[in-house]
Design brief:
six-stranded mixed sheet, five-stranded antiparallel sheet, 9 helices, about 35% helix, binds adenosine-5'-diphosphate, binds magnesium ion
Length: about 280
């Protein structure tokens, strides 16, 4: 099967302010993402995860390298990038909702602008998208009247309403109180089970272990290790991966010593990672 997204030697540098120096953030990323897969990107803060995600739909302009979406080179300047972004929609950590618009209007506005729907059609589609995330009854609520988890579900509904082929999630649960994380992960799991292609930057290791088809570990602008979750989480090869997992799993333990933040059904205790990163 052909990948839905492929990058070839993708590089991104930012110019430092007031100097001519370039800060290389992506240093040559070549990845393949298969259709209907859930792909999870993990890695330390500052390793370039968000930049990679934002380069995929060209919210950040890559400095060099190629991105193929369904076989088409979307770094080609003649491509209609708004069309690409509708097909590769992004969900952000901070929801990015308009606070002065109802849940329904947040979605229908995007549909009218991007999909050029009339008011009635946009409204109908917005309600349908809200139904998919279990928030039909909150259509007329403003974001300020909703919990963080509900706001993020509205943001997911907004992405869904575009009928994207891929949804990019940048730490979708990082801004949420722990008790609200589950409802957002549940919606994401439902999308995954319906075959949506998802690229997810997350620190939710339970979600990653259960849902990911493939895991990329990023470190200092490179893919340091990749593989199925059974390999990456149980038998990581790279020393940096081992160190990262050890640190992050310790953090999760520290938050709630008795219970993992998100239960992973069917995960046997012997699958857990010992302090040296091996079984
Ligand atoms: P991560 O998501 O893994 O934490 P990011 O992709 O956000 O990492 O950032 C990687 C590096 O790129 C950081 O050093 C960050 O400061 C830098 N960076 C990200 N966006 C910009 C930008 N718009 N301008 C300048 N530097 C940036
Ligand atoms: Mg980030």
């Amino acid at each position: 099967m052909a990948p839905i997204i492929e990058t070839v030697d993708l590089m991104k540098s930012f110019k430092a302010k007031k100097s001519k120096e370039e800060h290389m953030v992506l240093r040559g990323i070549s990845i393949k993402i298969m259709p209907s897969n859930v792909v999870v990107i993990i890695g330390p803060s500052g390793s370039g995860k968000s930049t990679l995600l934002r380069c995929l739909n060209r919210m950040n302009e890559p400095t060099s390298g190629k991105i193929f979406f369904e076989g088409y080179d979307i770094t080609d300047p003649s491509i209609d990038i708004n069309l690409i972004r509708a097909q590769m929609n992004m969900v952000f950590q901070s929801f990015n909702l308009f606070m002065h618009l109802t849940a329904r209007k947040n979605i229908s506005l995007a549909l009218r602008k991007v999909k050029r729907m009339n008011a009635e059609e946009a409204d109908r589609n917005a309600l349908e998208a809200l139904r998919k995330v279990g928030l039909e009854d909150k259509a007329d609520a403003f974001p300020g009247q909703l919990s963080g988890g509900q706001q993020q579900r509205v943001a997911i509904a907004r992405a869904l309403a575009m009928q994207p082929k891929v949804i990019l999630f940048d730490e979708p649960t990082s801004a949420l109180d722990p008790e609200l994380i589950g409802e957002v992960l549940d919606v994401m799991m439902k999308l995954a089970s319906e075959g949506m292609t998802m690229v997810v930057v997350t620190h939710e290791m339970g979600f990653a272990r259960e849902m990911a088809d493939w895991v990329f570990f990023m470190d200092e602008g490179l893919i340091a290790e990749q593989g199925p979750p059974e390999e990456i989480f149980v038998r990581p090869q790279n020393e940096r991966t081992k160190l990262f997992l050890k640190r992050i799993l310790k953090e999760v333990d520290a938050m709630d010593p008795l219970k993992p933040k998100y239960e992973v059904p069917g995960l046997a205790p012997e699958d857990s990672i010992s302090p040296d990163g091996n079984r």
